[in-house]
Design a protein that fits this description.
By secondary structure, the protein is of the alpha+beta class. It has ten helices and twelve strands.
């Protein structure tokens, strides 16, 4: 016979390919590198521009100083002007600087064609009659610097390429590029270090979360790293504490429910076995049947409470909301509970207004809550201790319609027990063996039902000495 087909993990839905997620370390490193590249690029561009501007200013200033020096020499010996300009041309010939002569009429002579064109474009012809000209012009495929000065016989202009210090510029720019590259390498190393420091606590936290997912509850994350990462570690540790406490309460709750189910089941099984073995006489069969029925009813009520608790968290839980006279509802409840209270020697006190107190609620669910609270109170009440059913209209108006109370004159609770009274099984765990308790489902169920009805329920000390369970019902029940 062929076995069942072997299937692997479900494939991702069409059109939704699984995306590979990068690690935080990679993202931090890439971010640091990106920022470093951006900063280095901006710094390199700004640096190159500043270097070129600085070299241009230095070349312009040097050419201006040289032109002033030649003009000073000619002014000191005007007769030797031609010799001075010729000597200057010979001296500057190897420095890519040309000397252009300016006639009294502004004509240009001497120098090469590129120098004359640059001088003409820069307005060197105006450098006569004591005037000076400083300018720049494009000639010969590059930018030329022009410094023109006037003399007694006309004038002269010194013309040199703006990039005369190209070799110096290339050296400075090369060193700047190496500095940028070194900065990028340093940024990479710093990014890796930062990523390691930041991601290490997160990796530890993720490992602990996986261990918690596999059932470990005694592991905790060291709180380290930046404040945000430390906050994550603290939150995960608090979650682990809460899970550990919650699971401990759940184990105690399940143990108490199991015990409560086992007790009536043992009674039913024992009595049924006695009937099967013929150990019960005809006269006793009715009594044994009544005992079996009572234990069965007890089991049915416990199972019903468990089912109701489960349904409270389901979307399919429905309410039958309708207009209800709460005064009539408590009168009807008192008629049912008075015989039980009389048989237990407990006085039942009904404190309701003479006029109707209307509300919109589910009467069956509300009665279920009140009966459960009364049953809990009657279980611990000594003979003579009162059981009080109280009702009053809420004078504050919307959103509340009425306040109901179930109070008793029993032993009450410790002050620290009131805040946890509605946790499943909590009071059962605290008072087991000291006073009669159920499985601890009643108060949890009452709390859930009242919340579904849109109201609130609270436990507090009662004036009669025991516990007061106070229910506030809304003027209208919200849609779940």
């Amino acid at each position: 016979m062929a076995g069942p087909p072997v299937t692997g993990p479900p494939a991702p839905p069409p059109g939704r390919a699984r995306r590979t997620r990068t690690t935080l370390a990679v993202r931090v490193t890439l971010l640091v590198i990106a920022v470093a590249v951006l900063v280095a690029t901006v710094a390199a561009v700004v640096g190159v521009l500043l270097v070129r501007r600085s070299l241009l200013d230095i070349s312009t200033e040097a050419l201006s100083d040289r032109a002033d020096l030649v003009a000073t020499q000619i002014a000191a010996d005007p007769a030797a002007a031609a010799d001075i300009l010729a000597a200057t041309a010979r001296a500057l010939d190897g420095q890519q600087t040309g000397v252009v002569l300016i006639g009294p009429d502004g004509s240009l002579a001497g120098g090469d064609q590129v120098a004359r064109r640059a001088a003409r474009q820069a307005g060197a012809s105006d450098a006569v009659g004591g005037r000076s000209v400083s300018g720049r012009a494009s000639a010969g495929g590059e930018l030329q610097l022009v410094e023109a000065r006037s003399t007694t016989t006309g004038g002269f202009a010194l013309v040199t390429p703006a990039d005369v210090a190209a070799e110096t510029r290339r050296t400075v720019e090369g060193r700047l590029i190496w500095a940028v590259a070194a900065g990028l390498v340093a940024a990479l190393l710093i990014g890796l270090l930062i990523a390691r420091v930041v991601s290490a606590p997160l990796r530890r936290t993720a490992d602990l979360a996986r261990q918690m997912g596999h059932g470990a509850r005694d592991v905790r994350v060291p709180v380290a790293g930046p404040r945000e990462v430390a906050d994550v570690s603290i939150a995960v540790n608090e979650l682990a504490d809460a899970l550990q406490h919650s699971e401990s309460r759940q184990r105690d709750f399940l143990a108490s429910v199991s015990h409560e189910l086992r007790t009536p089941l043992a009674g039913i099984s024992g009595q049924a076995q006695a009937l099967a073995d013929g150990l019960v006489g005809a006269a006793e069969q009715a009594e044994v049947g009544g005992l079996i029925q009572g234990e069965a009813v007890r089991m049915e009520r416990l199972i019903s409470d468990l089912l109701d608790l489960a349904r409270l968290g389901a979307d399919r839980f429905t309410l039958d909301v309708q207009p209800v006279d709460l005064t009539a509802l408590l009168d009807e409840m008192a008629q049912v509970w008075r015989p039980r209270c009389d048989s237990a020697g407990v006085p039942l006190v009904l404190d309701v207004p003479p006029s109707p107190v209307p509300a919109r609620t589910d009467p069956r669910r509300l009665r279920q809550v009140l009966d459960g609270l009364a049953d809990n109170a009657l279980r611990v009440l000594p003979a003579g201790g009162p059981l009080v059913l109280s009702l009053r209209a809420e004078t504050a108006g919307p959103p509340w319609a009425a306040v109901l109370q179930v109070r008793d004159g029993g032993p009450g609770l410790a002050p620290e027990d009131y805040p946890v009274a509605f946790l499943p099984g909590e009071l059962h765990r605290r008072y087991r063996g000291r006073r009669p308790t159920g499985a601890g489902l009643g108060l949890a169920l009452a709390h859930g039902l009242v919340q579904r009805l849109g109201g609130t329920i609270a436990a507090s000390p009662a004036p009669e000495g025991g516990v007061a369970m106070t229910i506030r019902l809304p003027s209208d029940v919200p849609t779940p």
